Amino acid sequence: MITNPTNGKFELLALPYAEDALAPVISVETIRFHHGKHLQAYVNNLNAALPGTPFENLSLEEVVVKSEGGVRNNAGQTLNHNLYFLQFSPKPAKTTPTGPLAAAIDRDFGSFEAFMTEFVQKGVSLFGSGWVWLAADDQGKLQITQEPNAGNPLQHGLHPLLTFDVWEHAYYLDYQNRRADQLKDLSKILDWTVIENRYQEVLK
Ligand code: MN
After folding, report:
1. Which of 15, 64, 158, 174 could share a disulfide with 153, CB 3.0–4.6 Å?
2. In terms of pTM, does the model score above 0.85?
3. At CB < 8 A and 24+ separation, what contacts does 69-76 make?
4. What is the pLDDT of residues 61-92, one digit of tens each?
5. Residue 83 C-alpha to ligand 1 middle, in angstroms?
6. Which residues hold their Cβ within 5 A of ligand 1, which is an ion?
7. Ligand 1 centroid to 114 CA: how many Å?
């Protein structure tokens, strides 16, 4: 999925579910702050910073790869949150992967259960604020990366498939300091059809 600006501006992601639909894992209060305030601020900051730079009118993904400083941070946070919010569903069509993605997870991590355990552990052990990612290289080989702050696997030539936000603003209202509990519970509302579709785009 490539995100292009409209008249030079990026827009706040429209959530594909009601703001109370992911409770109790992600409460309506967290959605209102995380999507309505934090993500909106990153989008606003990005739109304010882009005019007059060489990155104006590039796709969001290109800005994330090519820019630096404040533009890169706000573009990264915009893209990261878009990928994050779109991967959840109150009624996931698939609660585990199937097909080529399931086969790649078995090949590269041993099993789906082993992958989820490692993914949550790497989110828990990421020091400070950042994102844990499942990413694929151009050949479809999978790896887990830990990215500080606004980092995205695109910046290392990898394709982002799945992410957990470990900034405290993502979980503190609902789970306080219990980051591990929130990441385990997030696993239950992932819609693997979305993540499989991202992997299919890599394999094309
Ligand atoms: Mn966040």
Report:
1. 158
2. yes
3. 70/45, 71/46, 72/150, 73/149, 73/150, 74/42, 74/43, 74/45, 74/46, 74/49, 74/150, 75/46, 75/150, 76/149, 76/150, 76/151, 76/152, 76/155
4. 999 999 999 999 999 999 999 999 999 999 99
5. 11
6. 165, 167, 170
7. 26
